Each structure stands twice: as structure tokens, then as C-alpha cells.
């Protein structure tokens, strides 16, 4: 039985104003590529919503002010990463491109059925 490459899903939230920059960065790191004969790249699913946060006393917020509840029109992006090396590079690229000092993201390990 041949070994399969592990798949991951990267999910992150980003202000709409920085959406394209973050997608460009993660795709350059190898995220969003589907294996197979179609050679699809830059694949993701994006939904719009409203994020909220209250910066703490030691925060240096990109948007809003310390202590005040802030609401931001944001995008949630979900994309596939093939291999642990790709997802690690994509997270690194996301952190570099994202305007927030603490970007919201999740990485899920996917099962192969």
C-alpha cells in the first residue's frame, strides 16, 4: 500500500482590505493546490462576515484602540495544503502578510478516505 501525503486545511480570518495580499502570500507558499490531472491552483473558499475584538492593555492594534470593542468587516478563507511543509510555509506567509499582530487562523489535519 503506497503512503499518502497528509492533507491539511488552513482557515483564517482577515480584514477585507488585506484579503488579496494574504491570499497571494499563502498561494505563493503552495497553499490552494489540488492534486490530480486538473492542476488546479489558487483554490479557496471565502465567506464574508463581521469580526470583533477588544485590544488588551499591552496591544498595538492595527485597527481600533486599546480597551474599545471593535467590529471589522472580515473574510474567512479556507484552503487546502498538501503536506506539512506546505501548511507550515503557508502559515508563515500568512503571518507575514496579515496586518494584525495576532492573526486568527486554524490548521486542521484531514483524513484520507
TrEMBL record:
Source domain of life: Eukaryota
SUPFAM superfamilies attached to this UniProt entry: NIF3 (NGG1p interacting factor 3)-like
Gene3D superfamilies: 3.30.70.120
InterPro entries in alphabetical order: DUF34/NIF3_sf (IPR036069), N-reg_PII/ATP_PRibTrfase_C (IPR015867)
Record protein name field: ATP phosphoribosyltransferase
Organism of origin: Cladophialophora psammophila CBS 110553
